[in-house]
Amino acid sequence: MGSMDEELDRTLDAVGPRLKHLRLRRGITLTDLAEETGISASTLSRLEAGLRRPTLEQLLPLARAYGVTLDELVGAPPTGDPRINLRPIACSDGSVILPLTRRPGGIQAYKFVLPPGADDREPDLRTHEGYDWVYVLNGTLRLVLGEHNLILKPGEAAEFDTRTPHWFGATSSGPVEYLSLIGKQGERVHVRAAPKPGQSE
């Protein structure tokens, strides 16, 4: 367990310099990035300086802003099938992210595992450019979307424009696992029904 914690520490410590390098390579200011991601310029500065560790809610919009996958952003080494990096990424808040796609751009797929949460927890609503489709696999997912406080059970899905203030969390009933497909603004997920037997497509 100790070696895993040390590896997590090294991974998170390396995120700051990588974030700064990506921003400078794009030639944008902290203010520009703050407007694009919904993360304050002061928080972005602390993340780049390594004075603050990134959370799940911060890594996703940053990966989208820089056009890289989440595993590339945190520097997770590729393992397993070379076509898909199945290496889980542990976050400082106890959540785990499993990237299911590697290519930058287009729709990105992730599996999230969130630890049990407090039912009275005050959500930290975020906004950013993009579109999100969420499907609950196990457990109960709390989705705060604007003025709506939704409880999603296994088999239930939601989709929304991420410019709407939103927040995800587990409830006190236990951890939750869900899939998230995240696309660019206006890039919605298209679900296609299978044709009936004997019917051509």
Automatic annotation (TrEMBL):
Q: Which PROSITE patterns match?
A: HTH_CROC1
**Keywords for the protein's UniProt record, in alphabetical order:** DNA-binding
Q: Which residues form the HTH cro/C1-type domain?
A: 19-73
Report if keyword Cell wall biogenesis/degradation is assigned.
Answer: no
Q: Write the protein's name.
A: XRE family transcriptional regulator
Enumerate the SUPFAM superfamilies for this protein: lambda repressor-like DNA-binding domains, RmlC-like cupins
Q: Do you know which Pfam families this protein is assigned to?
A: Cupin_2 (PF07883), HTH_3 (PF01381)
Please name the source species: Micromonospora coerulea
